Amino acid sequence: MAQVGLSGAVKDPKLIAESPFPQPFEHRLSRDLPSWSDVYWQYRRCAQRSTSTSIMGFGDSTGVHCGQGLLRAVKAKWFGDQDAVDAIYRSRRQLVDAWKPPWQPRPEYLSLLEQQQRLMFEEPPAASVRSKSAQRGAAPGAPT
After folding, report:
1. By the 8 A CB rule, do 5 and 11 touch?
2. Are 87 and 72 in contact (CB under 8 A)?
């Protein structure tokens, strides 16, 4: 007789994973703050994902990240902190900085992000343009 532990049911990837697809455009542009139940469930799923070893990856959230999200929501809803409200809006819009990685983004990727209206910058900002030595992995300040 096989035993199913509670931890298996709580950490089931099918129940706690998030969809990798962007939300509908209307939802991403909403200026409403999330409800308390949305904040609770978002925190709970984040905490469960951070402890699930079956779906853990390099981009998954940590307990600290989950706590920061909860704190941001509390600051926005209870205290009206404008920085927290802006951070919630930025995360809801699901914008992507395609110029952040050390490689050039593919044109297909840029067109997809543009089509979904998720592209943060149309062209690389001056601060994210990397020199050839930085792209090759040389130490900052090393002669090229």
Report:
1. no
2. yes
Work out the average pLDDT over 92-109: 87
The predicted model gives 70-86 an average pLDDT of 94
Q: Are residues 37 and 99 in the same domain?
A: no
Co-location of 73 and 117 in the same domain = no
Tell whether 101 and 90 lie within a shared domain.
Answer: no
- Containing structural domain, residue 84: 7-94
DSSP states along the chain = -----HHHHHT-HHHHPPPSSPPPHHHHT--PPPPHHHHHHHHHHHHHHHH-TTS--TTS--HHHHHHHHHHHHIIIII--HHHHHHHHHHHHT-B-TTSSSSPPPHHHHHHHHHTT-BS-SS--GGGPPPHHHHHTPPTT---
Distance (Å, whole) CA 128 – CA 100: 6
- Residue type (1 letter), 103: W
pTM of full prediction above 0.70: no
